[in-house]
Amino acid sequence: MVLMCDSGSARPLVAPKALHHLNATPQNVHWGYFDAALAPALVVESGDLIQAEALTHHAGDDPALLMDDAMHQIWRAIPEADRAPGVHLMTGPIYVRDARPGDMIEVRYLSMTPRFRYGSNLAAHWGQLYSELGERERVTIYGLDPATNTAEALYAYDVREKYLVPGRITACPECDRQPALAGVRVPVRPHLGTAGVAPDAPGRVSTIPPGLHGGNIDNWRIGAGATMYYKVQVDGGLFSIGDPHISQGDGEISGTAIEASLDVLFQVVLRKDFTFRSPLLETPDHFIVHGFGDTLDIAAREASLDMLSLLKEAGLSSDDAYSLLSISGDLAVTQVVDGTVGTHMKIRRDILPGRRKS
């Protein structure tokens, strides 16, 4: 069982069989959807390392700072009509040999490096306070300081039209740029907003709502040093990554994080020794489960039930697990802006049976 498979504070690296490079090219990306019928962009063995490029679809908020020639090529190659039904630009899919429905794919995120030293936040029409703030969309461009691992706002501008075309390119030199957040710095914590396996469903499945396949979970803890477990739904898993961020708070209130492209190094391990219903996150200090639903009440209940299941697998009775949920489980909002809202519950690894540190 996953809870008991190692005793350290971080999961050791499985001896890799190969290192693959998966660049974001028109042939290796799919925009706005997961699809079980997609041909793999890459085929790997369990234990292989993958160095992959994850591109933000918000790069057009300032193309001079956030796009290069390779990205412009993708924007030209994929017509706007083919960026549907979701919005996220996904790299993949990756086919894991011998992965079958019911297996688990363990993804060990090893490093996440910004492609550029800039990112964008959009206060969008799907944000929680859009109507309260005058029903306008506002872009804030941030600069990264690697020396302090922080980001600060460079400027902001308002956009009259709603963000309806994924990858919209704004003519920023013509924008009315305004100062923003003077003197404020925020910590940089790169992570993937969207990643997951292909759902067992016909046709395209939107990247916007999160679900049991993963998808748009938007948990900022899914960064370097974290391990995610996804339940395989179709042969090979068909795992893809996208929606890279460099900073986000729980809730993602305005509609987006600081959206910024990342180079991601990760290891994929096929697990046939356990199963779990929903996307499971393991960090050096916590186990974290996720719940999704049309309301926060439904999402919170789903997360609580899955944490109850996880604790029972660790050897606790239902009653003991339920008590522990209340006294040590931290239930929080992951995001409220993806249509299907998300919650997460975390519990410290070192309080579980057999996990206490000396």
UniProtKB/TrEMBL annotation:
A GO term, aspect molecular function: hydrolase activity, acting on carbon-nitrogen (but not peptide) bonds, in linear amides
InterPro entries noted in UniProt: FmdA_AmdA
Pfam family, one: FmdA_AmdA
Protein name (database record): Acetamidase/formamidase
